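Q: I'm writing up a methods section and want to include an example of the input and output format. Could you take the sequence below and give the corresponding predicted structure tokens, formatted cleanly so I can copy it straight into the document?
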Amino acid sequence: MPVPLIERFRAVLPVSETTPVVSLGEGSTPLLQAPRLSERYGREIWLKWEGANPTGSYKDRGMTMAVSKGLEEGAQAVVCASTGNTAASAAAYAARAGIPALILTSEGATGEKVAQARMHGARVLAVRGSFDDTLAAARALGEGGNHVLVNSLNPYRREGQKTAVYEIVEQLGGAPDAFVIPYGGGGNTSAYAQALAELSLDALLVSAEAADRRRTIASAIRIGEPAHAERVRSSGALVVTVGDDEILEAWRELAALEGIFCEPSSAAGLAAVRRGDVPGDRLAVTLTGHGLKDVATADRLAPPPLLVEADPDAIRELSEGDFP
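A: Here is the clean output for your methods example:
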């Protein structure tokens, strides 16, 4: 197993020798050069592939910290309000720690991410009301003593997530001109900003949000009221807004040109690059989650298979020409 993130970055994390490390081998994700995208957009583009984390998203970086510190502080269970990657990550790390996970979702929530949490043995409860109501209930449970809240309001989450910046700088041998990430709740933006300050880097941080936050097709950044909006405002990050059509075009381009299947929200940063909103010649674009997190959207929007007879000539004819 790779070196646990906490062990690798112990010097810059709020842990001690007695902190119980709960790890699934998170972090140390690839930084992939994107030659075709670089040529197309006239930049040197690098892709930080966070879908390679154990549960398929960047949330694992923060979850190893939140669960480890929760155990150290006496928590007997974890709780979060989520219908997505936080739920899947919290359930997996709780299972690894040998403690229960309580996942509060919105009523009617389904899909791959909730199924992932259920497979890890989490207790999933669908809460009547808004997401704000659900989060308020999770926070109350977290303040009650037995559960540790592992949403991004947990400061240890952001401590773990900042390590992506340390890795990018190490992998590039220096800072890029800009770090480009999606903007959902803003926890990751504030984590990146914290790392830039700790490393005294002069690089630009660009945070790309969806134009219609409440109804965007990019479900992982479908957050109407970002919990960390004030932190984002004070971080110095350049916030840019991209539409769903732009996100989907960037999402398809990542898959077809560079072989990376991410979930649509992960493509928000590249959408900003494609539109020319990101200055700089050398860019590190973070892709936050794997495409298998949202197979339904891919199945609905990708070109369908073509029906052909089992005849080599017919197959050859259809296989020639431009591919979609």
